[in-house]
Amino acid sequence: MSELRKGQVRNLALATAAFAVTFWAWNLIGPLSGSYSRMLHLSPTQTSLLVAIPVLVGSLGRIPIGVLADRLGGRRMFAIICFVSIVPVLFVGWSGSYGWLLFWGFLLGIPGTSFAIGIPFVNAWYDPERRGFATGVFGAGMGGTALSAFFTPRLVEELGRDGAHLLIAAVLALMGVVMLGGSRDSPRWSPATGSALPRMREALKIRATWQCAFLYAVAFGGFVAFSTYLPTLLQSVYHFAQTDAGLRTAGFSIAAVLSRPLGGTVADRIGPVKVLAVSFAGTAVMALVLALKPPAEVPAGLSFVLMAFFLGLGTGGVFALVAQVVEASRVGTVTGLVGAAGGLGGYFPPLVMGVVYAATGAYTVGYVLLAVTAAVALVHTLRAFAR
């Protein structure tokens, strides 16, 4: 047990750092969407597709990656994802046409799969009553999107697009080496054996898998959608420069990052259902406020930050719920499925927003759809997990 306690803080910290680095790589296109749009003369729909395409692979890829994490362990899988992600990161930086950007952007989804590695990795280090805290702290690694939103446009200005992408590739290589040399799988963890398909079928038979997948699609999907598409939205509606839009998007992401571990920790104390109820109710209200197209900074900026806070609470609450309702041996596979749903939840909103803006010149319909979806998630949470 002493070995378990000694390894908890170090391995949680390393997993969180690896998650942040890979999420930075996953979100390399979004902060530069304005420059890509101008350089390649893209329509709003083409820009939204370019922003959303990494999310697709990062979502669906979590299913097989979650299964592999059960079999190979988080230490090796984190390193593998870091090393493999170097290739699309470099080629996105070198691409000069819309077609190649879409292709390498598709493969840029690979670093977005790291979430399905980290949840079972940190869960195995902690007792069930502390897993909400552990997964919440690990989930703060989604702050990699904030790092990307703030630093990527500035790095491009200083180093050029090639230089910025080379730097991110070097950070990924270093992170992979650190995970191989510095992290360890929990003594409680043992590799899953047998075929992956039966485990996935068994996970799909668990009702809680589908319920948590829907809730995570709303909470994490909402966060991903805004963190990737917000630079485009702020430039088109409020006419911010690319670096200014990136700065404000970083603020949005940081609010969600800080509230995610809070959501997990509070869920350990009062239960995840109450946390999720607050999350979805708050998100619905903020979406309706933003639908009115309020002025920039206040109240619009404040509304975006509060929405990020509520979405972050929800992402922390969902996996506290997973830890309570799913047995430990199936957490990796279930996490892959739930994580995939969360990523898919972030794939479609940017496309919808792009189409809505192209058709109406405003995002009002998109915000109303988000408010309705959050309200449905609130009702579902209270009915499905009522005690």
What do these coordinates show?
Helices cover 82% and strands 0% of the residues. The protein is an all-alpha fold and 387 residues long. Helix 1 packs across helix 9, helix 3 packs antiparallel against helix 15 and helix 11 runs antiparallel to helix 16. The radius of gyration is 19 Å and the shape is globular. The protein starts with a helix and ends with a helix. The mean pLDDT is 89. Residues 11-387 form the Major facilitator superfamily (MFS) profile domain.
Estimate the global geometry from the Cα principal axes: globular
Helix-strand string: HHHHHHHHHHHHHHHH
Secondary structure tally: strands: 0
Strand-residue proportion: under 5%
Share in helix = over 70%
- Main sheet, how many strands, which sense, barrel? none
* Oligomerization: single chain
Gyration radius, in Å: 19 Å
Structural classification:
mainly alpha
**Uncertain segments:** none
If helices are DSSP runs of H or I spanning 4 or more residues, what is the number of helices?
Answer: 16
Query: What is the residue-averaged pLDDT?
Result: 89
Distance between the termini: 33 Å
